[in-house]
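Anyone? Bumping this.
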Amino acid sequence: MEKVKINEKLNLFSDHWNPRIVGELNGQLVKVAKLKGEFVWHSHEDEDELFFIIKGELIIEFRDRQVILKDNEFLIVPKGTEHRPVAKEEVAVMLFEPATTLNTGNQYGEMTREKLDKI
Amino acid sequence: MEKVKINEKLNLFSDHWNPRIVGELNGQLVKVAKLKGEFVWHSHEDEDELFFIIKGELIIEFRDRQVILKDNEFLIVPKGTEHRPVAKEEVAVMLFEPATTLNTGNQYGEMTREKLDKI
């Protein structure tokens, strides 16, 4: 049982769209990631997903609108909801989601990360 | 589906040791709370509990050691682990835990908050 310093974890990697696992509780994972550019449209059939912004600005696009998130703000994307994260500049995020969650949800492809590192 | 600004939520109340619910996903609740002083020793039989520090310093005491948490740091307290949060000065925290979690765990008493407000 060790504390996790988010900023220290973020210094351990620099690639984008490749979440790292930093904690696990009650079958849920805590992840951190750096995002920049446009992700793929996708949804998660069975998992709600929480995006919490550590530093920067993240746009979460939906088919009919978008939500802009800044430091210390979060959004819960309900399961089954198509969404696409977009970051004009690099943004650091913390994610909370079930351990079963695949980053690209129902859109398996080149952005998919099946095995995530634990850091 | 609305974004949550943690700092705005924290401005809505000033009492200590009285968590508010700010989000729900996958049977888990996201809560915010202001803490100051010493809480009661307790454990949660079935729930792991995550403390994330928004602003300030929180000591989490265990029977054999303590962990000091600062901004952007978190600790997961595993179920069954006796702990006592202590804050010398006011600290603002975000909690992530199952919807079944009672703040005082197995120590029902005057600090217990059974019905939490959703803000």
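Late reply, but here is one note on the structure posted above: Chain B touches chain A at residues 1-7, 23-26, 28, 30, 47-50, 54, 67-69, 72-78, 81, 96-98 (CB under 8 Å).
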